[in-house]
Amino acid sequence: MRIALVHELLTMRGGAERVLKILADMFPDAPIYTLLYNEKKLGEWFPRERVRTSAINPIFGFNHHLYLNKFPRAVEAWDFSEFDLVLSTSSAFVHGIITNSAPKHLCYVHSPARYLWDRTHDVVHDASCGIFGSLKKYYLQRTFHKLRIWDAEAADRPDTLLAASNAVKRRVELYWRRKSDVVYPPVDDFWFEPNNQPLTTNHSPYFLVVSSLVRYKRIELAIAACNALGAHLKIVGEGPDMQRLKSLAGKTIEFCGWQKGDELKNLYANAKATLFPGDEDFGLVPLESMACGTPVIAYKSGGALETMLDGQTGEFFSDPTSESLQEAITKSEQKKYSKETLIAQAKKFSRAEFERKIREAVARM
Questions:
Q1: What CA–CA distance (Å, rounded) separates 116 from 97?
Q2: What is the pTM of this model?
Q3: Alpha carbon distance 186, 284 (integer Å)
Q4: CATH class in words for 189-347
Q5: How many beta carbons lie within 10 A of that of residue 57, not counting itself?
Q6: Is the pLDDT confidence value at 279 over 70?
Q7: In this model, does residue 201 exceed pLDDT 50?
């Protein structure tokens, strides 16, 4: 069977790209279509000879907000007539590819575009600040209105929808009026394997954030909480929000950049707890942390409610404020968590189970 993979953006590494990497391993002969491709950042995972890009020329860099108006036409321009099946992973646009059921289209939905629906007012408000704020607000309001219409219409195009969590399934029903089956993203087997590097023992106690540095991840809550507590915080990741976050950081906040492999596993294993302050569709970071035997302190919403056991694998904080997060951090420091319980919970979201459900969905089509 001739299969094509489609993914919105290959410009930074995140949870969606890790899911795509597993799909790429499952279907090694499938080419990967994407709107924008940064070979420097993603070439190791997705080599150029396998990637087919859109007609968009990223002359202004890889900030996808600059190309929003072009994305719908770009995904509709791809011709998949040489394939039997297209498997897309969508967070905004690629559910809108045109196949007309020849080939079949199986769409794995990380979420309907949140900046078009439940987060649109927050995004517009943040953009309206600054010297050109009124112009940006006007541009985004017009652009988002047009894209919402397109998004809702394009939602009818996939033959089958798979949702990354029950939270995503509810959004698919609310915004797209469609049914979907839940298939949880997997935590990679790598995180359960013994570390090839010895665990660091001469470090000061620290908390950990592992995230793309973008505004909606709410990393500033972790920074503010650790500033107030005088706690050591290590932030792993990169992204466009780095400079703003650095301006908020006190002396106990450390930016570690992108870490991979055993280095990241080492950071997880040595941390007192991993902080997860965003409202995420699913979130692989809590599972990776638990697989390494480290508890998680997460905002009580979204995918974390489906992966964590409150009080057993970590703590939740209820309000999106640094004060609420501080209370959860203080509570966690008074507890001792079972590594066996943490690892067992993470193993419920195995790669083998994910692959089995994907292959079943493909077989049904």
A1: 18
A2: 0.82
A3: 8
A4: alpha beta
A5: 10
A6: yes
A7: no
